[in-house]
Every structure is written in C-alpha cells, then in structure tokens.
Amino acid sequence: MNIAELQAYGYFALTAILVLVLYGYIYHLYSKREDADGHDYEEYSNIALKDDVTDTPVSAISDDKEK
Amino acid sequence: MFHWLEKHPFFFAVGVFIAIAFAGLIEIVPNFAQASRPVIGTTPYSTLELAGRHVYIKNSCNACHSQLIRPFKSETDRYGHYSLSGEYAYDRPFLWGSKRTGPDLMRVGNYRTTDWHENHMKNPPSVVPGSIMPAYTWMFKNIADINTAYAEQLTVAQFFAVPYNKEVPMRDGTTKIVKMGASVADANALALEEAKVIAADMKDQDVKDAVANGQIPEIVALIAYMNSLK
Amino acid sequence: MENRPLEYDYTVAKLFMLTTILTGIVGMLIGVILAFQLAFPEVNTILGSGLAEYTNFSRLRPLHTDAVIFGFTLSGVFATWYYVGQRVLKVSMAESGFLMFIGKLHFVLYIIGVAAVIFSLFAGVTTSKEYAEFEWPIDIAIVVVWVLWGISVFGLIGIRREKSLYISIWYYIATFLGIAMLYLFNNMEIPTMLAASPAGETGFGAWYHSVSMYAGTNDALVQWWYGHNAVAFGFTVPIVAMIYYFLPKESGQAIYSYKLSLLSFWGLMFVYLWAGGHHLIYSTVPDWMQTMGSVFSIVLILPSWGSAINMLLTMKGEWQQVAASPLIKFMVLGSTFYMFSTLEGPIQAIKSVNAIAHFTDWIVGHVHDGVLGWVGFMIMAALYHMAPRVFKREIYSKSLMATQFWIQTLGVVLYFTSMWIAGITQGMMWRAHDEFGNLAYSFIDTVTVLHPYYTIRGVGGLLYLVGFLMFAYNIYKTMTVGRKVEESELQNASPMGA
Fold this sequence. Notes:
heterotrimer, B: mainly alpha, 2 domains, two-stranded antiparallel sheet, 47% helix, C: mainly alpha, Cytochrome C Oxidase, Chain A, two-stranded antiparallel ribbon, 17 helices, 2 strands
C-alpha cells in the first residue's frame, strides 16, 4: 500500500466522518427543543433584543454561583 | 451537547481554531519540500538584478503585471513557455500578481531590450500607443539601494542555502556561477560592473553620467532585472 | 458606585467610529482617483510631475486596499465590538478600569499603526504581498494591536453577566483567531539587517527590509491562503457578527432561527479556509489543491447563504419596515449583496470560468460588490444605529439617509456591471485566435477597449464616495445638533429626524 492509496482511504474516511457529524448535529439540533440548561434554543435571540444593562440575562452567570 | 461550547468561551475558541487551522495543515504543509526545488537553468539573482527587483516591488509593478503564464495556447503564444514551479525557487517574495492591467512579464527578457525599456519607462504611450501605464521618470533620478540587495543576498545564502558563488547547472549542460561580493564595497563594485553594460545601451545622458560616477540609478537596476526574466 | 445606575460606556466605540469615517473617506477617495487613473492616465500626475512618484497608480493601489481593509473595515469592526460586546454580554466597560485602559491603549496604538502604514506605503516600503504589504516593524506593531484587542474581547467575556455567548460574539472570536493565525504565518520573514558580510561588516542596507521565509510557489500558496481568508475573516465573519446583532435589534424581530445560525457558523469556519486555492487555479501549485479550492468554494455557498437567508427571513412579515426605514434598507440590501457575491465568487472559482476571469477586472468587480454592497452598507448601517445610542441624539436626517442609500446603490450597480463587461471582454479577447491560429489581438487592443467601462466604473465609485460623504455629514450633524432623545426612544427602531 503506497502513500497515495493511504491518502485515498484517509480521504474517504474523513468525508464519511464529516457527513456523519454534520447530519448528527442537524438531527441533534432539530430533535431537541431545549439545551442542557433547559433553555429553548430560540430564547437566545433575546440576548440581542433585551440588551439593556438592567435587563435580566437569558441565562445568568450568577445562576451558576447560587447552585 | 454542542451548545455547551457557547457557554464556555475558552473551549469555544479552541474549537474554532481547530476548525480553521485544519485546512491549512492539510493543504499547505505537504507541498513545502517539493515545490522549493529549482529547475535546471534557474539561477539566483545577481546583486544588481535583486536591487532591480526591489525597485519593481517598491513601485508595486505587480499591481498591474503578472509573472505567471498559465498553460493555455493563447498564453504560451503571447508570453512563451508556461511557468514551472521550480523557476520560482529563488523568488522571495513571489511576484505572480493578481491582475493583468498590463501584460505578463514572466519572460519579458526574451523579447524586450534595454533600449525598449528605457523609452517605455520614460513615456509608455510613445512606445505603445494607447497605453495607460504612467511614466516612471523618477527612476532615472533615484539611486538604487545596492546595500540592501547585498544584505538580502547574504541572508538568503545563509538561511535558505541559495547557491551564490557556486556552480549552478544550466540547460545546455554547462554551469554558471552567480557571484556575490565578499564585502559591501565588493558587492557595489560587482553591481557597478553590471550596470555599466546596461548603461552602455542607454541614451539618457544623466543616467550614463551617474553610472560613470559610480552611482546606479533605479532604472538601470530595474532593466537588469527585466532582462533577467527569461 | 452601587447606587448609581450602571450604564454602558461607549468611549472607545466613539473613537473607533471616528476612524471608521476618516479612513473610509481616505480609502474611497484614493479608490476613485485610481479608477480615473485607469480611464484617464493623465490623472497619474494630478499633483504635477514632481510628485508623480507619490500620486502614481502603482504607489496608491496598496494604500487603497489597505485603507479600506485595515482602516475602514477594521475600525468598523472595533467600533461595533466595543458597542455590541458590552450589550450582548450585559457588562459595562465602566465596570473594569483595566479593560477601559486596554481599550484606549488599543485605540492609540491602532492610530500609530495606521500612520506608520500610510507613511511607509507612500514611501514605497512594501513586501508586495497583497494586504500584507507591511514590513516587519509594522507587522510587530499590528500583532501588538491585535493582542490588545484579544485582551479586550476575552477580558469582557470573562466578566460577563450573560452566560451564553450571543451569535455575534462567536463571529468576533473567530475574527480574532482567524486573522491572528493567518497574519502570523503569512508574514514570517527574516530582517536583512541581521546579515553579516564575509568581511565582517554588519548593519548595512535598509533596516526595515526583510525577506520572506517562503519562496515562489510556497510563498504564493501561503499568501493566498492568507489573502483569501483575510477577506473571510475581515470582510465576512465580523460583518456577519454585525448583522446578527444590528438587524434584529433595529427591526425588533428575533433571529429567524438560532439553530440555523449555529449550523452556518460551524460550516463557515470549517469550509472557508479550504477555498484559498481558487486564487491559484492554473498556476504552478499542485492540481489537487486547485481542485480542492474550486470544490470548497462551491460548498461555501451553503453556510454563506445559511446566514444570509436567516437574515432575510428575520424580516418575515415585517417587510413594511424595509420601505419605511432607510436603515433597514441598508441592511437588507447588504445581505442581498452578500448572497450575490457569495454566489459570484464560487462561479469564478470553477476552473473553466476562472480561466477567463482570472487576471481580469471581473475579479475587481466581484471584490467591490462584496465590499461596497455588503461590507460598506453594513458598517454604515451599524454606525447609523449606534449614533443615537452613543450620542443620545436623534439621527439628523432621514431623507438625507434615504438619498444616500439610492445614490450609493446606483454607484455599486454601475461599478459591478461595468466590471463584469470589462472582465469578460478582456478575458475573451486575450484568448481569441484568428482563422490561422494566431492571436487575434495584441495586448494593447485589450486595454484600449476597456476605456468606456473604466469611465463608468469611475463614475460609480464617485457616486459611492459622494454617498459616504453624506453619511459622514449626517453623523457629524447627529453628534452636534441632533435632537436629544430619552432612553425609552432607543429600544428598537432608531429615532430619525426629517
């Protein structure tokens, strides 16, 4: 097996892995509505919309410290 | 699981870096050793040619002129043999350019003369009617920087083993030695010797006088460089 | 301190807004001069033949590109960072004396760097590599400026209240990392002042001169890996960061899909860097790299359009805002131009198309519909949105803004249509053979034929510059005489005077 053949197998494996990762990621995103912290992904848009310094953060750092 | 990253800036940054560095690793690294080997007949630049190359760069000639002949009939008809990777082995930096507002100059030394360049650089439309290239009159007055060219020769000889003062194989089976001075004065003397040959073919009296007085105007160095492009 | 209401501190943002406008004027003015030099060569000696060396096309061209990239665009990126960064992380720069100091130092060194670049390029001190023309002393200064910005970015992130990073922040982080990596590798060079002659002499020659670590084909490969991706991480990534914040905020609409933005972000990060090879098609770099560059350029349409479609769908059901607000017009047209140029680019990267397009004005046209239509519009829109908030005043004139929008749109259209025709005409003429197999045209034929298109392009550029001056005037008037506004008016749509 020469280097070119090895590269070809490597290339094929890499492509296959990338395809798996991509579709896995898409499936993961769209099958679950909420992330690990229990927030709906789409809530994060509010970070931009409610961005006054007095607004309540969507997921505050201080929440972690209280736990 | 992926969303975790957006809450952990450090790991997020690492992730981004891996994603963007990946392509560079795969594309660029494997080519390095192979592409830097010179083809037979490629010689390093002499001190004067290198000073001329600096004039070329100083005036961004590469903004309008390419030095890359693509393997198409129309290009080889117009400019000569298509470019080979090894021909660029001593080009630091490369001067391929990205825009041909003017013609390619990769092999301009094959079909243009010192006299042609002199007239053309003074007043391009007088040689090529309709040309939109500006005149480069200041090159006839500014003095070329030979010392910097010499410093560059020493640097590339030391760090990249560029074969100065060594036999380099030529296409016809002979060898050629490109000399590099042993001291600053020596390097200037070598450049002046070359400059005299060029100035002898020129008409501009100021340039001839300058060279006779031991000074090398930029235009002489530039023409030396142009003539070396073959 | 505890009892006073906390406010965002826009001191540094204001400073960078100023440099965005100034370097924008300089860069675009030089661009217009260059455009007319190609149409009318006499313009090369516009200040007399004594100064021709400094007003000549080739000396000015790097100044134009660098003023627009590292002046206008980068200032715009910094200005918006010092604005958006605080807001989406919900932390004020006033809370950290250290970050405030770093921010100001960042600005001062940036100005020094810009001055050094302008001076050195006028003097002809250049490495010749596109968008990396600076010699090593300036390279070092740029690295310092960049590191300071990095400290600002990560420092602010370090003291944030909002745990999750907003989409814009991802793109700012990517900008920081991308440019850092590319710039460092592309500018590897050895100063020639270190040379010692066999006779023992040292320190001769120009002290600032250096020689590239890479030679020939390798140098080209690294340079275009850089050159292409400097465009990616200067003209795409941070501008996407801007639109993800400013469009939702100005329109009051949540991003159409946060998930889509995640997908397009990681897609863009992974794919973009591969595409550099498309600058070297039919050159002496290995064939597989050229093909790779070509293929990945096409793949790149997906993540680019992912972001652009996300933006346009954010306006779903709210299209009346486009008609009503010139500010929304700028952003919607900006994302449309983004879609347009991210489609045009991949088309040019197809090998057979590239054979015609490469080295012609079509490429110049492509860059400009991206930069004028997308980058320029988005940065101006961002500054228009920021102005009422940082100056606490209403935007001086809505009608002036609308007029500017139409003048500039016309300018961009004239620019890219003329360059399309010019590029394809020239590409076809270069390759034309007559019935005997000889070249049909001499090179100069392919130059003189372009005169009308160069003239139209010059006019297009001039219109854009006029629009930019109107923008500068509008911002200046906002700053000085705009009606004072209350915090409550600044929630979404920016307040505008007649």
